[in-house]
Write a structure and sequence with these properties.
alpha+beta, Gyrase A, domain 2, four-stranded mixed sheet, four-stranded antiparallel sheet, elongated
Length: 827
């Protein structure tokens, strides 16, 4: 058998194992990830504190400067610029460069645009810009200030990606761009979100800090009031601004500007007009969101919605219904839509090659420090150039003073080099001066030109002295910084767009909605509505009453609560969650309307439904408790005040096992007896004193010990003068006096509450047990749709172990599925 020749895997080098370098994978991954994260942080996501630019923006501005795309020249195709940036400085996708350039041209994205765009550059509605082959661009007048003096050795230049060219690592940045236009970016493990500011305010703050280096942040905030967003809107309160400026982080609440306007030709109608929206909000998405909320009936009081924006400005028209309160609708819009947003400030920037969170004063100090360096470097460059020119002029003076000798020497020299050497040796000139004399044109020999040379030399001596004085005195440099900033302010300052609502608090709907007594109706199928109690007129005894709620099919009114519109309603679901709403938040409906589903009011999850509603006026009572029972026999007691701070979202009211559901919740005083009934006909009664009060997220304790296949179907708090009504699947039922159920300790199996029958190898089950009083009526519903209404006390009273009597006769294959207490409106 012959050996086969080994095929090289890489080029001509055979793979024999000697080329393998062993690496520790943990160290390699750590090193590679650090390299990647630093690349993202330094070269992509975060701005430099000095010029406030990310690398891509800096490269775009520098490329435009190099291409001569200045404000005084015609526009050039955007594609030309993108190609220039990609080919020379930014080896990434063209979309990254073009999208960055587009943003610098959008007046709704930048407070002070840096690119002057011509063509479709997108809109506040989220419309995409035209392709780069269709749009054109050039530098804005303001952006030239970012590049001023870049050719005077003011900033370091570094090799580009292939080291074939040089690019600036930072721009001279005469504009305080970091705070002026802000920045946003997500790096690895950190993010920045800097809001834009007003140019005039920012310059006033910088000038004050230059004059008063010991100024505090509150001192600076007398000049820099807060962010100034390009889309205007209003900032609510000062706490977020104070926190952002003091610590570098803070939430700023921003609200749209909404005006109330009378609808033309409709004297009884008003409309809300949105003229300014918060920063970075998509207007078309916002309008769609409002429309969806109106459609889902989460926003009430709105009859019409349209966008009337044009070139003159933004105008979102929201027409209100006849009886709608503008303040209430406005508050609902702020609460449910992006008309009110929070801008989370994170003043993070690259400082000395390191990401750092800065406060307001540190941001301004870094800008001043950068400008000091730029002016110092510029002055050194100008001084060198002035001294070089003075040196040449000094040589020309010598030549003019010895004109005949110079001419004679030059005429006698055979070559230029000999003439240059002769000038150096005979007149003690430098080679540079000698070359300048040789390059001098004959017209310089006229008397007028000689006077100009003399005058220029004397002026240069003054300029040189001034440059040296600037470099010797830091106060001169600071004065130049102030003068340049004040000149910029005179040219480019504009009015603040974002206003302040200093002492604003969220509108309290309780103050806007009159307090009245209402009836809250709920049905078995999860519908709810409210009706003013004035709807139900007083009737004499024996009257038929009035309809309180329309229902569909076999749906019945399950409960009615008479509460104030300002009362709280604690809604507990089968998932063990608690939601809190006010009485006025339940939709109002007519007597015959079926109301609205709870799922649209509370944003319930799939399979979640409301089991119990507990009305509450105050949550500060530590002697009032909520008793909760589950289908698996768990019971829990929690102080009512635990639910005091429940806000928009739901909270866990009880921790449930995976196969358990919350069954019922009752409000108690801590001294009452608890009764739990099971599907297999067991009943337990015990004192709630045996249950220790626990916090909201706890599980609870065992209330009744269930046998296999059994579950709790009813949970009540014992009442005087009431008897226990038990009904079964086969249509049997009975009443039993509560005195027959003595109190025992919790956790037992309980006692028999009804003797269940069996037929055709099928055992009967308890459908419902409830406490009833004299005068109560019940409605029994069977599987086949038969409905029977009768007096609860017409059902005979029997001992707890009795089998009961027929309450409803059922047909073949029919069975009782539900029993409900009739709501007596007269009562």
């Amino acid at each position: 058998m012959t050996d086969q020749k080994q095929t090289p895997l890489f080029g001509n080098t055979p793979f024999d194992g000697s080329n393998i370098i062993p690496l520790n994978i943990e160290e390699e991954m750590k090193s590679s990830y650090i390299d990647y994260s630093m690349s993202v942080i330094m070269s992509r996501a975060l701005p430099d504190v000095r010029d406030g630019l990310k690398p891509v923006h800096r490269r775009i501005l520098y490329a435009m400067h190099e291409q001569g795309m200045t404000p005084n020249r015609s526009y050039k195709k955007s594609a030309r610029l993108v190609g220039e940036v990609l080919g020379k400085y930014h080896p990434h996708g063209d979309s990254s460069v073009y999208s960055a350039m587009v943003r610098m041209a959008q007046d709704f994205a930048l407070r002070y645009t840096l690119v002057d765009g011509q063509g479709n550059f997108g809109s506040v509605d989220g419309d995409s810009p035209a392709a780069m082959r269709y749009t054109e661009a050039r530098l804005e007048r303001r952006s030239t200030l970012m590049l001023d003096d870049i050719d005077k050795e003011t900033v370091p230049f570094v090799p580009n990606f292939d080291e074939s060219l040089k690019e600036p690592s930072v721009l001279p940045g005469k504009l305080p761009n970091l705070l002026l236009n802000g920045a946003s970016g997500i790096a690895v493990g950190m993010a920045t979100n800097i809001p834009p500011h007003n140019l005039g305010e920012l310059i006033d703050g910088i000038v004050h800090l230059v004059d008063n280096p010991e100024a505090t942040i509150p001192d600076l905030m007398q000049y820099i009031k807060g962010p100034d967003f390009p889309t205007g809107a209003s900032i609510c309160g000062r706490e977020g601004i104070n926190s952002a400026y003091m610590t570098g982080r803070g939430p700023i609440l921003v609200r749209a500007k909404i005006e109330v306007e009378q609808v033309k030709n409709k004297k009884d109608r008003e409309a809300l007009i949105v003229t300014e929206i918060p920063y970075q909000i998509n207007k078309s998405v916002l309008i769609m969101r409002i429309a969806d909320l109106v459609k889902d009936k989460k926003l009430t009081g709105i009859s019409d919605l349209r966008d009337e924006s044009d070139r003159k400005g933004m105008r979102i028209y929201i027409e209100l219904k006849r009886d709608a309160n503008p303040d209430i609708v406005k508050n609902q819009l702020y609460k449910h839509t992006a008309l009110q947003t929070t801008f989370g400030v994170i003043l993070l920037a690259i400082v000395g090659g390191t990401p750092k969170i800065l406060n307001l004063k540190e941001c301004l100090q870094e800008y001043i420090k950068h400008r000091e360096h730029i002016i110092t470097s510029r002055t050194k460059f100008d001084l060198r150039k002035a001294e070089e020119r003075a040196h040449i002029l000094l040589g020309l003076r010598v030549a003019l003073q010895n004109l005949d000798a110079v001419i004679k020497l030059i005429r006698a020299s055979k070559t230029v080099e000999l003439a240059k050497e002769g000038l150096v040796n005979q007149f003690k000139l430098s080679p540079i001066q000698a070359q300048a004399i040789l390059d001098m044109r004959l017209q310089k020999l006229t008397g007028l030109e000689r006077e100009k040379l003399e005058s220029e030399y004397n002026e240069l001596l003054v300029v040189i002295a001034d440059f040296k004085d600037i470099l010797a005195n830091k106060s001169r440099i600071l004065t130049i910084i102030k003068e340049e900033l004040q000149s910029i302010k005179e040219k480019f300052n504009d009015k603040r767009r974002t206003t302040f609502e200093l002492n604003i608090e969220e509108t309290n709907l309780d103050d806007l909605i009159p307090e009245e007594t209402v009836a809250i109706f709920t049905t078995k199928e999860g519908f709810v509505k409210r009706i003013s109690v004035d709807t139900f007129r007083n009737q004499l005894r024996g009257g038929r009453g009035v309809s309180g709620m329309g229902t569909r099919g076999e749906d019945n009114v399950e409960n009615i609560m008479v509460v104030s519109t300002h009362a709280y309603l604690l809604c507990f679901t089968n998932f063990g969650r608690a939601y809190r709403i006010k009485g006025y938040q339940v939709p109002e409906a007519s007597k015959y309307g079926k109301g609205r589903s709870f799922s649209t009011i509370l944003n319930l999850a799939n399979g979640e439904f409301v089991q119990t509603i507990v009305p509450v006026n105050e949550f500060d009572d530590d002697e009032t408790y909520l008793l909760m029972a589950t289908k698996k026999g768990v019971i829990k007691k929690t102080v009512l005040s635990e639910f005091k701070h429940l806000r928009k979202h739901n909270v866990i009211a009880i921790k449930l096992d995976d196969d358990d559901d919350l069954l019922m919740v009752h409000k108690t005083n801590g001294q009452q007896d608890v009764m739990m009934a099971t599907e297999n006909g067991m009943m337990i009664r015990f004192s709630e004193k045996e249950i220790r009060a626990t916090g909201r997220p706890s599980r609870g304790v065992r209330g009744i010990r269930l046998k296999k296949g059994d579950k709790v179907i009813s949970f009540d708090v014992a009442k005087e003068k009431a008897s226990l009504l038990v009904l079964t699947k086969f249509g049997y039922g009975k009443r039993t006096q509560l005195s027959e159920y003595r109190c025992i300790h919790r956790g037992g199996v309980g006692v028999r509450c009804i003797m269940l029958r069996a037929k055709k190898n099928e055992k009967d089950k308890v459908v419902k047990s409830m406490l009833v009083e004299s005068g109560d009526e019940i409605i029994c519903v069977s599987k086949n749709g038969t409905v029977n209404r009768q007096d609860a006390y017409a059902i005979s009273s029997q001992g707890r172990a009795a089998k009961g009597v027929i309450v409803q006769r059922l047909g073949k294959d029919d069975e009782l599925i539900d029993v409900a207490l009739v709501i007596n409106l007269d009562k």
